[in-house]
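Handout, section 4.2: multi-component inputs.
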Amino acid sequence: MLVIHRDICGYCGACVSVCPEGALELIDAYLTVDDHCTACRICTRICPLGALEVADEAKV
Amino acid sequence: MKRKYDVLIVGGGPGGALAARTAAEKGLSACLIEKRPAIGVPVRCAEGIGKETLKEFIAPDDRWISAEIDSARFVAPDGTSMTIEQEMAGSKVGYILDRKIFDRELVWQAAAAGADVFVKTRAVSPLMDDGSLKGATVAFCGEERKVGADVVIAADGIESKFARWCGLDTTVPMRELMSCAQYVLTDIDIDPHVTVFYFGNRIAPEGYLWVFPKGDRTANVGIGISGRKSKDGHRARHLLDRFITDSFPQGKKVELIVGGVSVCRPLPCTVADGLMVVGDAARLSDPMTGGGIANAMITGRLAAEVAADAISRGDVGRDALIPYDDGWRSSSVGKSLEKNYRIKEVFIKLDDAKLNALIQSASRLDLKDFSVLTLVKELIKRNPKMLLELKSLYSVLK
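Output:
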């Protein structure tokens, strides 16, 4: 599942634009992810700050 | 907020503001909503714009012009640099804005023209009636309400959702999303009238690093790298920090700005029944420079003009709105986007040795004597090993 590190996130919305599922949305300064997320990791790659991570389900 | 407007504009950046101002000037009832609690912040921009384009929309004003630029310097990976003066660069030379003030001014103008403006108000979903778009459900402080509109103009930027909710695929390919970071850096030694661009696969892979002056000792120092080159420990912020440590170790970071810029081709179609998409939301930022303000203002205004015409005829279906899409695509906006897309595709494939060779040979020429086209011709003569790349560049430019 996608983990949003809110202490790192710069709420810029770059991730929203690359999400093929439309699963991300930026609500002012708060990034949300819905259950359409397939953990494809594209957003984790492009984040300028490294605020997104796909975590192993078992460890969460 | 009324229950029904002629035009509902989603997003309060330059595209939305021009759409709202134009719609109101055309006598339409217009409502602009901005999800953030203030117009103009947070800044997501390097703030450069060409002088001539800007003047078509608003009279230049010192309150929102941070610096006036008269030349641009390009720095190769090996440190060789070439400078292009104002006469040759044409409209590429211009202003560095203060977007916090600039955006606010544009929205105030829209309000003065008669548009309604609401902040901290976001579109939650399209309002559909019998399968066609009839406005949006919007939320303010947790309170939802339906706002009817004949036409919705989606001006919601890089993080656009509205067009996607209406069925348009707005996904930016990973390799064509520039992952960007920028500091407003102060107390640094710069030339206050020169923009500097650094190229190289180590410094800014498939992108560039910029120093855009904001005053005598202050600049926007930022970087954009291709999404596919971004990874742990090697992200936009890391590469920018490394550059600043090397080049401006005494600089003080007074603002951190991050963001994404699309350098893909525009959306295949920027209208649907009752919907028009403008600016960054339509993926209209320039693929070569990353600049988005000018195209946002141009398309924002054009969208409102076409909307006014369509509404007066009583038909806001896709076919009635298509003159907007045809309009920008066949104008200098569409042509320049396609040309610059192809130039970008040539440039991102150049390795550092080729970038060095290009800038070295250009730096030996007196650029005052050259148009861009004759410059490329001259570079072909001097760089026979790069014939293939330069020929494709030449064919795009001519």
